[in-house]
Write a structure and sequence with these properties.
By secondary structure, this protein is of the alpha/beta class. The chain contains 6 helices and 6 strands. It has a 6-stranded mixed beta sheet with strand order 3-2-1-4-5-6, with helices on both faces. Helix 1 (about 1-25) packs parallel to helix 2 (about 45-60). The two termini are about 25 Å apart.
Length: about 170
């Protein structure tokens, strides 16, 4: 089980770096300016670590991390890398209203692309349209199988189901 988990984790992180590299090569409109990445996360944001460490070689920087959970582990990653972060409660807000607030924060930080890392909230059309073609979600399983699971739960389900392979979905 450890080998499967480690392999899948490495694959997830590699896939995320590959996508960022592709976005960088496609969107050469920054004219020498670093591509600014905004991260939305609700959990530990495991893939965030590699993204933060890869930014230099990618010609990018994480401009802000936003979480909807005050105790999310992703906050510690933001602190340790000195990345601005914000907890934004969704309590009492409709999806679209919440996402409008997120858009304000992303705009304040001049974010070019958004990466969802363990973001356990439904994203409204308001946010999707604003970042159309510039928003990426990484999921630790090959969807549609094992959707709704996170981290080791995904890999446990893969093994329990007798599957012989696993992977990630980046969409």
């Amino acid at each position: 089980m450890l080998v499967l988990t480690l392999s899948s984790l490495i694959w997830r992180l590699s896939a995320l770096s590959t996508v960022i590299r592709r976005v960088l090569s496609i969107t050469d409109t920054n004219e020498g300016k670093k591509l600014r990445i905004g991260i939305l996360g609700s959990t530990n944001g495991t893939s965030t670590q590699t993204l933060l460490e890869s930014c230099g070689e990618l010609g990018a920087e994480v401009g802000v991390i936003i979480t909807n959970r005050s105790g999310a582990g992703i906050i510690n990653k933001a602190r340790s890398h000195r990345v601005p972060y914000m907890f934004l409660s969704a309590k009492g807000l409709e999806h679209a209203d919440y996402d409008r607030r997120i858009l304000q924060i992303l705009s304040m930080h001049e974010i070019d692309i958004v990466v969802l890392v363990g973001y356990m909230k439904i994203v409204s059309p308001v946010l999707v349209e604003a970042y159309k073609g510039r928003m990426f979600n990484i999921h630790p399983s090959l969807l549609p199988k094992f959707g709704g699971k996170m981290d080791l739960d995904v890999h446990s389900e893969v093994i329990n189901a007798g599957e012989y392979s696993t992977g990630c979905t980046l969409h």
